[in-house]
Automatic annotation (TrEMBL):
<keyword id="KW-0813">Transport</keyword>
<protein>
    <submittedName>
        <fullName>ABC transporter ATP-binding protein</fullName>
    </submittedName>
</protein>
<keyword id="KW-0547">Nucleotide-binding</keyword>
<dbReference type="InterPro" id="IPR003439">
    <property type="entry name" value="ABC_transporter-like_ATP-bd"/>
</dbReference>
<dbReference type="GO" id="GO:0005524">
    <property type="term" value="F:ATP binding"/>
</dbReference>
<keyword id="KW-0067">ATP-binding</keyword>
<feature type="domain" description="ABC transporter">
    <location>
        <begin position="3"/>
        <end position="227"/>
    </location>
</feature>
<dbReference type="InterPro" id="IPR017871">
    <property type="entry name" value="ABC_transporter-like_CS"/>
</dbReference>
<dbReference type="InterPro" id="IPR027417">
    <property type="entry name" value="P-loop_NTPase"/>
</dbReference>
<dbReference type="Pfam" id="PF00005">
    <property type="entry name" value="ABC_tran"/>
</dbReference>
<dbReference type="InterPro" id="IPR050166">
    <property type="entry name" value="ABC_transporter_ATP-bind"/>
</dbReference>
<dbReference type="InterPro" id="IPR003593">
    <property type="entry name" value="AAA+_ATPase"/>
</dbReference>
Length: 248
């Protein structure tokens, strides 16, 4: 699987929001994108998901232009966007056009993966915020997309739940081999989870920097206290602040 963005431009009413965005991701990659408000992060994710057309340039998945939504791209929003009157299992299985037995098997597997199989019959209103986001991620993964798109999925959670979800997401990524592109405003989160971090400048959004994250081993919370992590976080924070001011 290869996701390629070539010189992507997005305009609204003639005003450029994104200008000349380039990106390439391969199978099993995990890329985090950061930038200040107004840098176009969520707009870019919407275009990759096929919810917004590009003004110029191209977005291709395995050489095929993206022209609309498709099951090969799973999208998770900050709110989770679950169906309130469907059970957890029904939410995860929604949209799976499979024989009943295979659909049930897949729903069971992904609910087990996110640790929510005992709550398969619960409604979203009976879940915590973190549990609802686990369901949303399971639903996106159940379609077994080529790339999972995450739009600030933990932004509305409290600090402890957010940290738990970060560890959870990294484990799910390792278990499933999913390809993940995650938009976040949280630099610490980006460095903890991403194999690469892309920094967008603003006004209009451009790729200002792309940094590898050479941190070996599991991405546990204790990693945040190491000198290597702190140095990387400071580097990305300086870039975000600098490009928000119009350059570094």
């Amino acid at each position: 699987m290869t996701l390629v963005l070539r010189d992507v431009v997005k305009e609204y009413g003639g005003r450029p929001v994104l200008d000349g965005i380039g990106l390439e991701m391969g199978r099993g990659d995990f890329v985090c994108m950061v930038g200040t408000s107004g840098s176009g992060k969520s707009t870019l994710l919407s275009m990759i998901a096929g919810l917004e057309p590009v003004t110029a340039g191209s977005i291709e998945l395995d050489g095929v232009p993206v022209r609309g939504p498709g099951p090969e791209r799973g999208l998770v929003f900050q709110s989770g966007a679950l169906f309130p009157f469907r059970t957890v299992a029904e939410n995860v299985g929604f949209g799976l056009r499979l024989p009943a037995a295979e659909r049930a098997r897949r729903v069971e597997w992904y609910l087990s993966e996110v640790g929510l199989l005992p709550l398969a019959g619960a409604l979203p209103k009976e879940l915590s915020g973190g549990q609802r986001q686990r369901v949303a991620i399971a639903r996106a993964l159940a379609c077994e997309p080529s790339v999972l798109l995450l739009d600030e999925p933990f932004g509305a959670l409290d600090v402890q739940t957010k940290e738990d979800m970060q560890v959870f997401l990294h484990q799910v990524w390792q278990d499933t081999g999913a390809t993940v592109l995650m938009v976040t405003h949280d630099v610490e989160e980006a460095v903890l989870l991403g194999r690469r971090v892309i920094v967008l400048s603003s006004g209009p959004g451009r790729v200002a920097a792309e940094l590898p994250v050479p941190l070996d081993g599991p991405r546990r919370l204790a990693l945040k206290r190491t000198p290597e992590f702190l140095a990387l976080r400071a580097q990305v924070e300086d870039l975000v602040r600098g490009y928000a001011r119009g350059g570094v």
